[in-house]
Specification:
- The structure holds 2 protein chains of 2 kinds.
- Helix content of chain A is 0%, strand content 54%.
- Chain A contains no helices and 11 strands.
- In chain A, strand 9 and strand 10 form a beta hairpin.
- Chain A is globular and about 40 Å long.
- Chain B is mostly beta strands.
- Chain B contains no helices and 11 strands.
- In chain B, the strands form 2 sheets. In chain B, strands 2, 4, 5, 9, 10 and 11 form a 6-stranded mixed sheet that branches.
- In chain B, a hairpin with a 7-residue loop joins strand 9 and strand 10.
- Chain B is globular.
- The mean pLDDT of chain B is 91.
- The chains are: A mainly beta, B mainly beta.
- The interface between A and B is medium-sized, with 30 and 26 residues.
Chain lengths: 112, 110
């Protein structure tokens, strides 16, 4: 079975903290994605990566950065967390050119 | 207007009922996905369609490319089918970028 594992299910952080969300996949997928999910808005793409050290902005990259130093790991970084970044964060991965994406369990982040 | 629209947003059904969730999209696509999200957050892929119809157990998904419309049907619904069902379209290109609908919250009551 394909596994996409996110490091935390629940996180509570303070405003201004630097936050790292980690995602690891075990299927040698080239593509990895970070989404956030908010009520009434669905999933929105923050950043994606199609190869090691490669990254591209999604639809809502402001306030976020990413790192992909190894193929299996894609990190989402909140440089200075704000309350409007309270959300569910979902990581996904897929083979390049393959249509199906596999999702992690999600990290529910609360910024207080 | 969202590029992917789902209806209804919320649906309550009695156990055993036949359920239909609809998805309309306004962009050119190479594939359409139906996803299921249970409470707690994890998302599971149910179907990936580029034409016609697929069936898996009590679930059936259809797509009409000309009309830019897809439906997800659940036959003989059961309380364990209660979840959020999400339609997503793949807009093409090598990066598998997906555009998501906002989801349909389904509650099946015993």
């Amino acid at each position: 079975d394909v596994k996409v594992t996110q490091s935390s299910r629940y996180l509570v952080k303070r405003t201004g903290e630097k936050v790292f969300l980690e995602c690891v996949q075990d299927m040698d997928h080239e593509n990895m994605f970070w989404y956030r999910q908010d009520p009434g808005l669905g999933l929105r793409l923050i950043y994606f990566s199609y190869d090691v050290k490669m990254k591209e902005k999604g639809d809502i990259p402001e306030g976020y950065s990413v790192s992909r130093e190894k193929k299996e790991r894609f990190s989402l970084i909140l440089e200075s967390a704000s309350t409007n970044q309270t959300s569910m964060y979902l990581c996904a991965s897929s083979f390049r050119g393959l249509l199906e994406a596999f999702f992690g369990q999600g990290t529910r982040l609360t910024v207080v | 207007k969202n590029e992917v629209e789902q209806s209804p947003q919320n649906l309550t059904a009695q156990e055993g009922e036949f359920i239909t969730i609809n998805c309309s999209y306004s962009v050119g696509i190479s594939a359409l996905h139906w996803l299921q999200q249970h409470p707690g957050g994890g998302i599971v892929s149910l179907f990936m369609l580029s034409s016609g119809k697929k069936k898996h157990g009590r679930l059936i998904a259809t797509i009409n490319i000309q009309e830019k419309h897809s439906s997800l049907h659940i036959t003989a619904s059961h309380p364990r089918d209660s979840a959020v069902y999400i339609c997503a379209v793949r807009s093409g290109g090598a990066t598998n970028k997906l555009i998501f609908g906002t989801g349909t919250l389904l509650a099946v009551q015993p």
